[in-house]
Amino acid sequence: MFPFGTGHSSISSSRSSLGTIPMTVQSNPGYPFKEIPVPFGAGHFNKIGFTLSSNLPSYHSTSSIASQSQSNGISLLQNQLNMQNTQQPSNIYPHINPNAPFSYTQPVYYRRSISDYMKRGTPTVLPKEDFDARSDSEALRKAMKGFGCDDNGLIEVICRRSNQQRQEIAKDFKTHYGKDLIENIKDETRGNFESLLVALMTPTLDFYCKEIYDACYGVGTDEEVLIEVLCTLSNNEIMMIKDRYQELFKKDLEDVLIGETSGNFKRLLVSLLNANRDESGIVDPEKAKADATQLLRAGELRVGTDESVFNSILCQRNYEQLRLIFKEYEVMTGHSFEKALKNEFSGDVKDGFVAIFRCVTNKAEFFAHQLHKSMKGLGTNDRQLIRLVVTRCEIDMVEIKEAFERLFGESLKSMIKGDTSGSYKYGLYALIGEQRSS
């Protein structure tokens, strides 16, 4: 480590487990970007000794474990793991889009991903080719200088850059004009359009932390926010949020949640906040049957419900194992596990468990349901709508739009059109990859 004042920078490896190493995917041939950073919220990369390579979705071993298994006495479980990861798993690539910007290729040192983003994610907001922070900050200055504000000018820059690029623009803007870009935006815009632009200009990790803070310290507790964040992110991302929350607000997030929630919902959030989910991707069919049986005995086969069994299994098993458990449960009972959750629980804990179930089975459908909930009925929950669009537009918004139309028989654009207006509406259009005229 270089001493302070030498002009050298040092990189501590102590926080590498919290995601400081940039994670990237390579783009498809013909797409302008060769390598694209994986945004916060897209998932965790699990090092198990295998990598996904080439433009065809298939697994290739990066180690000699398989060839040495006879001589070194490797366990049956490890042999099964090798077989699972040297072949294409079933149902992971049901609809490969040849026009998607990613080739689903990982560097060897990141091994296999368990992220839905890496499997099939297609965002609607991508990093701009030939990005120039200087020219973008000049364009924003011009849009906000003088009498009135050019909202279209703000949309064309802020809503069409990645979060990483927006942070570079903010830094350049402050360097050249001596003004904080977010504060300048607040001075020149109003209402939901202002809220949308401020959310976009906030670093994603800070944005999540602020949403949690406001959810806990506003008028009442907004449980929807806590569910959306803690039930959908990886261990790595949850740990980053805990650390950053402490830095920003000088409070321990677990203590905050314990003070703001109660009962079974509080225990669910504390379990998730521990970030102790198995992320190995290893499946065990016999254990899945045992867990399904245990869930059945803890719920439908007894008077009352043993919430702790549901909490333990849903918060600890890896997604692949949970899918197997859900299938076993349906075979045993003749109905879906989601139906069982709705019958056995109520209130916030039910919503939390259902959120985990939907994220495991189809994360795009979970977020489609959340978007629909933000706009259905009288009035629009604009804060939820903004949060969902801003955090998912760089990850899997194409899948979410497809799921939305499939589930509700209406396009996401059409519903946004009916519930929003003006520059706010056009900013949302840009973020979800829709044109104004169509």
Task: Describe the protein's architecture and organization.
The chain has 438 residues and is mostly helical. Helix content is 56%, strand content 4%. The protein has helices at 65-68, 76-85, 116-120, 133-144, 151-158, 163-177, 181-188, 191-201, 204-217, 223-230, 235-249, 253-260, 263-273, 285-298, 307-316, 319-333, 337-344, 347-375, 382-392, 397-408, 412-419, 422-431, and strands at residues 24-26, 35-37, 45-46, 50-52, 59-61, 112-113. Strands 1-2 form a two-stranded antiparallel ribbon. The protein has a two-stranded antiparallel ribbon with strand order 3-6. Strand 4 (50-52) and strand 5 (59-61) form a beta hairpin. The longest helix is centred in the last third of the chain and has 29 residues, at 347-375. The protein is elongated, with a radius of gyration of 23 Å. The relative contact order is 0.10.
Average pLDDT number? 81
Secondary structure tally, helices: 22
Radius of gyration: 23 Å
- Helical content stands at 55-70%
Largest sheet descriptor: 2 strands, antiparallel
Write out the strand line-up for the largest beta sheet, numbering strands in chain order.
Answer: 1-2
Q: How are helices and strands ordered from N to C?
A: EEEEEHHEHHHHHHHHHHHHHHHHHHHH
Structural class: mainly alpha
Silhouette: elongated
Distance between the termini: 56 Å
The total count of strands amounts to 6
Taken as a percent bin, the fraction of beta residues is under 5%
Low-confidence sequence ranges: 9-22, 27-32, 45-78, 80-120
